[in-house]
Design a protein that fits this description.
alpha/beta, two-stranded antiparallel ribbon, 12 strands, 33% helix, 16% strand, elongated
Length: 349
């Protein structure tokens, strides 16, 4: 596969382990201690990066934008005011980036305007994540691409043509390290619209690493994406789903984030290389010999007895004569006394 690259010290691509982004988003609730705790949770869970979002409600939404029904009571405010209330204070970015560096995890944030690109570029972020809704903003893409940092595009609601256009714009502006994330832009998303099989399809179509930005409830869909080749997984998390705010209800909690990382690593280990082999070294230690079947005496067989079919049966364990040879034993002569239930070996005949 083409297009493999690195984010910080981590390689991203088909032959690398999945890059796990713990999406803090707006779940800091404009509390710096909460934001720091989110970083700490991501570190304990084993995520590769923790990601925030850098936006301003005033520059992101028109004052005449309609409310979002999915926000429920939270949507009583005009959407630009609601987003302003949840925005990450810009002065926290350097504080959080430093905290991430001290904790050994990558700090990422999604820029939603050019000022955000400049600020994050100044912090030397390892990559830019372009949100699904921004994939049609070619000006923002071009500006972020001009930094020549890796770009990760979420593709919720995007057509193949729109994805192709975004990649072309990014490459024309100097970005040569690009990844895509399959995404459904509902919060939460029902599993029926996730379409994990688009992950290998987009990888083939665009020749770049492809992963999943997952908004389903729970962790099982995200973990399953590894089986179809997800190179990156992004998942919203929170300290507590009951906290007030638009993104808490569909986010996973700390213990679930830890479980997700563990499950992803287990699935990666379980996938193997696709070559069917005989017993593994671990299986051969005991199970191969003791749990397979072999030929066993169905009755006492004195020395000198000519073997007939009814004298033999097949049982476990498996360190005697293999069952496939049972018919060849008929007519042979016992060279020693064979007791009932003895495991028959060639030197007994």
């Amino acid at each position: 596969m083409t297009g493999e690259f690195t984010i910080g010290e981590n390689r991203v691509g088909e032959n690398a382990r999945c890059y796990l982004i713990a999406e803090a988003g707006a779940n800091h609730n404009r509390d710096l201690d909460t934001a720091r705790r989110l970083v700490d949770v991501a570190v304990v869970a084993g995520a590769d990066a923790v990601k925030f979002q850098t936006y301003s409600g005033k520059t992101l939404y028109s004052t005449k934008a309609p409310r979002f029904d999915y926000l429920g009571d939270l949507g009583d405010k005009p959407v630009h005011e609601l987003l302003e209330d949840t925005a990450l204070p810009r002065e926290w970015q350097r504080i959080l980036a430093t905290h991430c560096r001290d904790q050994g995890i990558e700090f990422l944030s999604s820029p939603f305007d050019r000022r955000a690109v400049d600020e994050l570029d100044d912090l030397d972020v390892a990559a830019f994540k372009i949100a699904s809704f921004e994939i049609v903003d070619h000006g923002l893409i071009r500006y972020a691409a001009s930094t020549r940092r890796p770009l990760i595009f979420s593709t919720g609601m995007a057509t193949l043509a729109e994805i192709d256009e975004a990649i072309a714009v990014a490459r024309s502006a100097g970005a040569d390290q690009i990844a895509l994330l399959q995404c459904a832009s509902l919060y939460p998303s029902p599993p029926s619209i996730i379409n994990l099989r688009t992950i290998p399809a987009m990888r083939t179509a665009f020749g770049v690493p492809v992963g999943l930005s997952d908004h389903t409830l729970g962790t099982h869909v995200a973990a399953a994406s590894i089986a179809v080749g997800a190179a990156i997984i992004e998942k919203h998390f929170t300290l507590d789903r009951t906290m007030p705010g638009p993104d808490h209800p569909f986010a996973i909690e700390p213990n679930e984030l830890t479980a997700l990382v563990s499950h992803v690593r287990d699935v990666e280990a379980a996938l193997g290389d696709g070559v069917k082999r005989g017993p593994s070294a671990d299986e051969a230690v005991e199970m191969y010999a003791k749990a397979r079947r072999s030929v066993v005496a169905a009755c006492d067989i004195p020395t000198g007895t000519t073997i007939v079919q009814d004298m033999l049966t097949v049982k476990r364990p498996g360190f005697g004569i293999a069952p496939k040879f049972i018919e060849t034993l008929v007519g042979r002569v016992a060279s020693c006394d064979i007791e009932y239930d003895d495991i028959v070996t060639w030197d007994m005949l």
